[in-house]
Every structure is written in structure tokens, then in C-alpha cells.
Amino acid sequence: MSTAKKQKNKAEQYIKDVMSGKKLVCKWTRLAVVRHVDDLKNGHKRGLYFDSDAGQDVIDFFGLLKHSKGEWAGDFIVLEGWQEFILRCVFGWKWTKDDTR
């Protein structure tokens, strides 16, 4: 399995865990996840689309970076599911009219 696929599954697993209640999060985080899932289905009605590749590009970039200090100095940065979710939302959602975020 490619690194991109593993990372995508990690973010998707976070979403599934929040939606099922397996992952306990605050009210605002849960609402953000619910909005994301709803927008995947209905975002086109508001002129939105989700560019999964754009979100994945940012996550892949983080995978090239290394910690510079501390006990993990020299190790590659590994994002947690919640971090990948945030990056996917910030960089993946775009307006259909002009492809901007």
C-alpha cells in the first residue's frame, strides 16, 4: 500500500471514529467533522467541491519534513489523524467557480 493511501485511510479512520463516537472530541470538533461529511454529499449545492489530491499533497509534504530538536530530532514527522483531517479540510475544499479555497 502506498504512503498516500495509508495517510488517506488514517484521516478517513479519524472521521469514522468521530462519527461513530469511538473517538471522543469536543462539540466544535464533532460539528466540523459532521459538516465535512455533509459537505462531501451536499457541498455542490453551495458551490463547493473537495479536491482530495490537493489535501493529500500537503500531507505528503509534511511526510518529507523531519523534527529538528528534541528526542525525535532527525525523525520524519508523522501526522496524527486529527492533524490530517484539519489539513485536508483547509487545503481540500474549493469553490467550483474559480478553484480557490
Widest sheet: strand order?
A: 1-2
> Which stretches are low in confidence, meaning pLDDT under 50 for 5 or more residues running?
none
The coarse overall form would be flat
Instruction: Please tell me how large the radius of gyration is.
Output: 15 Å
User: Could you tell me the strand content as a percent range?
Assistant: 5-15%
Main sheet attributes: strand count, strand direction, barrel closure: 2 strands, antiparallel
Count of extended strands: 2
Number of domains: 1
Average pLDDT confidence is 92
InterPro entries: Terminase_largesu-like
Summarize the structure.
This protein is mainly alpha-helical and 101 residues long. The protein is built from four helices and two strands, in the order ααβααβ.
SSE map:
Elements: H1 3-20, H2 27-42, E1 48-50, H3 52-62, H4 81-92, E2 93-95
Antiparallel strand pairs: 1-2
Descriptive account of the structure:
56% of the residues lie in helices and 6% in strands. The protein is mainly alpha-helical. A two-stranded antiparallel sheet has the order 1-2. The model has no long low-confidence stretch (mean pLDDT 92).
Task: Write out key terms for the chains shown.
single chain; 101 residues; mainly alpha; 4 helices; flat; Terminase_largesu-like
